[in-house]
Fold these 4 entries.
Entry 1:
Amino acid sequence: MSRTREIQVLTCNVQRASVARVRRQAAWLVDCGADVLILTEVSAGESGGELAKVLADDGFGVALPKPSENDRYRVLVAGRGVELASVDVGAGSMGHRCVAARVALPAGEIGVTGLYVPSRGPAARRNQDKRAFQERVMTVLPTIEAALDVPGPVVISGDLNVLEPAHDPRYPVFGEWEYDFYRAFGRAGFDDAFRITEPTAMDYSWFGRPSADGTRNGYRFDHTFVSRAHRTAVLACRYDHSVRTDGLTDHSAMTLALDLTSAAA
């Protein structure tokens, strides 16, 4: 029987952290044991560069694109102990929010794409940036697996700022076009890794402000998808709430365990 060739992928929205909080986040990320990090809402300013530097100093290969002139956020992808091979998947001017790379780890080579979908935005630009980014991603989704061209699974993960159509509870603020963005991953050949292991259970990665009675609405905004041909490689996919409850960020992290011995060729 073959030894398990396991890879751990962690996704987390780092909430545009200050330099001081970035250093605390980086200490947690270094110790969490993940082989691959996909970090969203990374600051376009000094703290984003500091996060990349601390991770690099601890032995991670880091891909952190330059931000656009009119965007405060970007995505960081890192691999423990390995250099990343960045891949242009066709996101164009939105490439700082859609970061793809090949990651050749001792257990095997996988492809990853980190996504950070804009929020609904201010009243003056309600949903404009969000829709534009989603439309661009939906255009490139069917080509991402071929562009990465790796023998192992392709993982697409990040803060999508959308919910699955069967999300419980259902919030009327979300439109059908937002649910269709979630469905686009399935049409492009990627399966929701959380739903592979948890077909019906609900969990949440972000909570709204408390209501008058103190309750808070939960949202499953952070998602991880795996190439369908490699869905049997998924060992576990769950949310780690400790990073949120400890105050390092306002999102829970999402962890994915892959066994490359069971991945389809």
Note: Residues 233 and 262 are 5 Å apart (CA to CA).
Entry 2:
Amino acid sequence: MTTADDEQLVLQSVDAFCERHLTPAEVQRRDEAHTPANDLLVPMAEMGLIRAPFPEAVGGIDLPWSSMCKVQERLSYSAYFAGSILNRVLSFGIMPLMAHGTEAQKDALLPGLFDGQRVIALALTEPDVGSDARAVKTRAVRKGDGWVLNGRKTWISDAGGASHLLTLCRTPEEGERSLTAFLVPTDAPGIAMTTLPKVGNNCMPSYDIGLDDVPVADEWRLADVGKGFAAVTSALIYSRASQAATNVGLAQSAADLATQYARERHQFGRAIGEFQVIKHRLVDMHTEVMKARLMVRELARRIDMGEEPLEIAAMAKITATEALQFVVNHGMQIMASAGYSMDSAMQRHWRDARLFTFGEGSNEIQREIIAKVLRIP
């Protein structure tokens, strides 16, 4: 059983990791060079971070998800991309395999994931499909003992450094509504990837992916035919908690940056933080961060109890992503040109933050999920 001492030791290790690998200068360098975060996974694995939330049988310590959310918040306080890459390995790699993978798939993929040597990218979104995941058009057709995939996936994060794409496809031979998931090797013939230029999150590259007669052996099918939607989305409750936690970490970093600036910047003979308009704005920023943090901790507590509270997961995603946008917008206003400068971390927070209210399921869709659970007409 994990204790508070175990959690504290893990968090101390995370702090040491950040001091060593995520200094402000290094984070700025990576952002400017568009350097992916994959290389950080090996030192994360060496400190036991990737295995931590899993049973002792696979080298973990059964660290509760409430503790893992604190881990990801701390990582993202230093650099959002560090918390994000850990979230992807856990939520879109290990979790689906643990829940739906065959023993052969687990033997082939889990060791590399646990050791930080492998990434599985979620290939879900498509052009003209957006947040309607059930409307995917990419098709998988049986051919001999395997499948042939045709279609296009877009805005697929970290695909360039992934060994496999967790790909949701329509399998029309089983019925027009049949959706099946595949772990598609990225070195399979017929896959073409193009990097997508974007505003922020430079260390989390995104790709447009074409699938042209891509052969996939049936051994790489994840879960039963027609059960792909559940296989792909089963880990979303963990991903929602992780994404919300990383947003809280980033928001706290931005709030602290603005607060420090308000203490040091002087106008009209005194620190601007002494002016009520600035003081109250900073209070509102920190209040929004705390509200989001409490929502994340409630979601994590429910997960630790074995629940799958879809509405709480959606609420956490909404609260954290919108708190982050509130904080960076007001932080940018407080810091003005000092925050707008490319030398400032605030401009990076501001650029990165804009993605999250529509990334990984728009907040409008999250509100629909909540309304459905609450049976609101």
Note: The CA atoms of residues 140 and 171 lie 5 Å apart.
Entry 3:
Amino acid sequence: METTYDMKIVKYFIITSLIWALLGMLVGLMLAAQLYWPVLNFNSEYIQFGRLRPLHTSGVIFGFVVNILMGTSLYIVQRTSKTDLFNKSLSWMVYWGWQLVLVLALITLPLGFTSSKEYAELEWPIDILIAVVWVMYAILFFGTVAKRKVKHIFVANWFFGAFIIVIAMIFIINNLEIPVNWTKSYSIYAGTQDAIVQWWWGHNAVGFLLTAGIIGMNYYFIPKVSERPIYSYRLSIVHFWGLVGFYTWAGTHHLVYSSVSDWIQNLGIIMSLLLWLPSWGGAFNSLMTLLSNKEKLKHDYVMLFFLSAVLYYALATLEGPLLAIRWFNMIAHNTEWIVGHVHSAALGWVAMSGFAVFYYFIPRLWGREQMWSRRLVKWHFWLAHIGIAIYAVALWIGGIGQGYMWLKQHPDGSLAYSFVDSMNFVAPWMLARFIGGALFVVGVIIMIYNLYKTLSLPISALNQSPKTRELENSDEGKVYVK
């Protein structure tokens, strides 16, 4: 009997992810503009930087990334397990429950209802809803794995399983709090303990949402788009256990030069350096999978999106451990260099991976074999690359300059530069950051337009060869694949 897979829920998650990607990045672009032109907050308490910044991070991380991971994980676990979902009704409860979380975030954060914790700003009633929805998602995913019709569990499902379990554990522990009223609560932890628990969550939210989850997604789609098997399945398992073993300990590198005990700081530094091994091993594995089909790589921009994502992953996992070393941390901490590092990973690794999946996956979900315009895919690719380069390089230069100016002293011990001097220095780099971000967002808009045209055309038109389609539509002056 042929297995019938549930694709409708997957479509909903993927399209919702696409919408949140645009919304979250538009808010980020608005914030970048405010940093150079503060007047753009229009003297409003609701759209000033402090309130919109968590809306930007929540929109991108919990809107764009979590939706695409939920959608692709439910697709991949069905296909690789040769079975349908554990419970279709539960899948819709997860979908609508998660969208309710995002809508509540959209309402409460601009109103100033926040716990003030990084990546955990939402207040306690929403935290409870997140935990409930996440447990339902876990039951749905692992229930589907349990009913699989094959003995083997594909490696992508290992990464998805790890990201589901670890995020649930660290989110719940970090958000243990004492409610004061419906819109305010206080953490049960205090002082350095609160900081340690927060960065156990904060860094591993990056490590298991933006890294392990995306890796799981890519371990399925990179072989698909490359039309080749994973270069080394054994290396992918080593990659998995290396990340699980080292990443969960690295969060305290955010607390170097703080009141946290030195041994805890040193543990975070050592584990950060050890992360080089599994991270670069995984990047090498994906890179070699893509390079195993060099002919297709020469002209397939979806493969090039994946290739770029892997290279940015290697760059970010080189830079991150370096920034954990005390000497580098002394210069970089609290500067724009950290923002440049985060966004070179978020835009280069996470977003480029997401774009590649959108381009490859969305047409196939709707029965199309190719995109409406290959030329627009190419334009998006180069706009994204130029945007990331301008963005990251500007913040690297601005951040290193900031760190130097803050540390520079006269012989008598007085500061050589005032804080205003450092702000004046970094101002032009804030403008460059906005320009780079604008180019990146323009690329996203082009992608959405291209995907819209792809899905709006009849299947028969898109499944023709580009040359045939050009000849058939030449009398109307239209060419569907440019």
Note: The chain has a mean pLDDT of 93.
Entry 4:
Amino acid sequence: MPASKYDVLLPSEVGYTLPLANLNSDAHRGMEGVINYRGKAGELSYTLGVNGTVSRRRDLEQYKPRFGNSWNEYRNSFTDRWANINWGYQVAGQFQSQEEIDSYAVDNDGQGNRTQLPGDLIFKDVNGDKVINDLDQRPIGYAEGANPYFSYGINTSFAYKGFSLFVDFSGASMQSFLRDWELRYPFQNNGTSPDYMFEDRWHRADPFNNDSPWVPGKYPAIRKDNAGHANFQRSDYWVTNVRYIRLRNLELGYTVPQKVINKVGISNLRVYANASNLFSIDNTKEFGVDPEISSANGLVYPQQRSFNLGFVLGL
């Protein structure tokens, strides 16, 4: 991989800089496999196939890396390390009461916990210095986007007395999805917010009485125009390592017997019905997004479900 030698300087009078040289290196490492089986039981014939691919980039060498300290090396080194590491805070729980906040010894929000409310996220103090900051961030996921490191498929077919059935599943994992914008911040873009954030949140029993008891929920209490609150920092609370399997294609067909179609001068006739993207089993449904969506706010069309009827005619 081309790079420049930062430690070789040329006087400005030379009028040019050193050309890039072959100094760095990386590699995509992984494997893939396919297994197919064909069988028959009486008049029933069937096939089963599975396939899988795992591939990930690894940075191998970097020209004379420089680091100010061991933390800087741990956080920013590219030498012999997987690429696209997702860093963030680890969430250890949520505050259950104002009394717990008042007695909490760790500065969780960077402001002496004065912005915290019951239900707010508690970040793990990894280095034990009683302050939550960048030194407590750790790898919390894979690269974000629509290209998972691991993908697989399962396909099968059955044929019996002119009937045929084809089923095709596909799935993936080792992919991270960060909920952002409309999926993370309340009242984002003129009030747009996910319904789950309002329906299952910490809130006062009486919204007009600040002395009324807190009602627990999954999500922290809602703040308006406060996207900079500690709750919304990048953490494993908002990052989901996506896993899914989808019924990609399903087709049922029937080939009309020759003795029937020969009477009308047809050599071949097959009718069929198929459907695509009928359903998926995944861990993103609770956010209202498709597992194959790469947009952090989910504002793109998901995989479309389609149905078709057709025939194949031979004269």
Note: The CA atoms of residues 105 and 130 lie 7 Å apart.
